[in-house]
Amino acid sequence: MTAGAFNHFDAIADAFPGALEGIVTEAMDEIAALAEERAPRAARRRSPSDPEPGTLAHSAAVTVESTGDGTVATLEFSATNEAGEEYAVFEEYGTHNQPARPFIVPAFQAGGHILEGKAASLESRLPR
Amino acid sequence: MTGFSEYPEAAEFIFTQLTDPPIDGFEGLVEEHPGSEGSPWPRITFQETAWDDVTEVAENRVWSELLFLVTGGSKGASTKALKALATAIDARLHRVSGTTTDGQVISCVRRGGFQLGEQDAGVNYRRLGGYYSVLVQPTNP
């Protein structure tokens, strides 16, 4: 066996972006699940009456995009109230007369640990 | 360590930092968000948005990290009108530490800025401030 047989650098480099995208996607899916779990269910003045509890939670969408510089993951909650306003922002940050009921920031706070855990598996996702 | 509740200590720290001594030119109140009904504008409000315990062996809590959203808020469409208040908030909460009744704040630092505009019943409201991370533990952990 020659030393050249161990040179998998090209294959590793080729697999790197895909492996990282996999980690980001998996982590973002878990963060989205945490946010959905925490999304407020009870209606408030600037949130719509909720005929189907969980409207806000079910409006979550994750997109993962590869750019030239890396991978960008986005989590968006698009539920709207009667005025056509996307009301996730009112829940997350509160309004001038309503306390916040944060559900996205806490999920991302926990998400740091999720991402770290998955990043630890990077080596196992690459060719040996 | 026996029982300990971090939130009251962290909230006391933020309140004290923002009120003692009073902020020059600010005559409003510092309250938990959204403030009490009838509270004058502009106002400063704070609210805990995330809470993470840091533990060591045997689940001993080393400290807790509480993330607070702290903003100056006013009626009107101008965020610039809140610049001085938000700057004063940051001067008092970023890179500071101290003690509270039963605890100690190891550090308080800004993690990110925040601004939000909203309109309700034809009235504009603006908020400007930031997210502040407060590391708190008992006086004698």
Topology overview:
The complex is a heterodimer of chains A (128) and B (141).
Chain A: H1 9-38, H2 55-58, E1 60-66, E2 71-77, H3 88-93, H4 105-119
Antiparallel strand pairs in A: 1-2
Helix pairs in contact in A: 1-4
Chain B: H1 6-19, E1 30-32, E2 43-55, E3 61-75, H2 83-93, E4 96-99, E5 103-120, E6 123-138
Parallel strand pairs in B: 1-2
Antiparallel strand pairs in B: 2-3, 3-6, 4-5, 5-6
List keywords for this structure.
heterodimer; A: 128 residues; alpha+beta; two-stranded antiparallel ribbon; 4 helices; 2 strands; elongated; B: 141 residues; 6-stranded mixed sheet; 6 strands
How would you portray this structure in words?
The complex is a heterodimer of chains A (128) and B (141). Chain A is α+β, with helices and mostly antiparallel strands and 128 residues long. Chain A has four helices and two strands, in the order H-H-E-E-H-H. Chain A has helices spanning 9-38, 55-58, 88-93, 105-119, and strands at 60-66, 71-77. Chain A has a two-stranded antiparallel ribbon. In chain A, a hairpin with a 4-residue loop joins strand 1 and strand 2 (71-77). The model of chain A has no long low-confidence stretch (mean pLDDT 85). Chain B is 18% helix and 49% strand. Chain B has helices spanning 6-19, 83-93, and strands at residues 30-32, 43-55, 61-75, 96-99, 103-120, 123-138. Chain B has a six-stranded mixed β-sheet, with helices on one face. In chain B, a hairpin with a 5-residue loop joins strand 2 and strand 3. The mean pLDDT of chain B is 94. The chains are: A alpha+beta (128), B alpha+beta (141). Chains A and B meet through helix 3 and helix 4 of A and strand 2, strand 3, strand 5 and strand 6 of B.
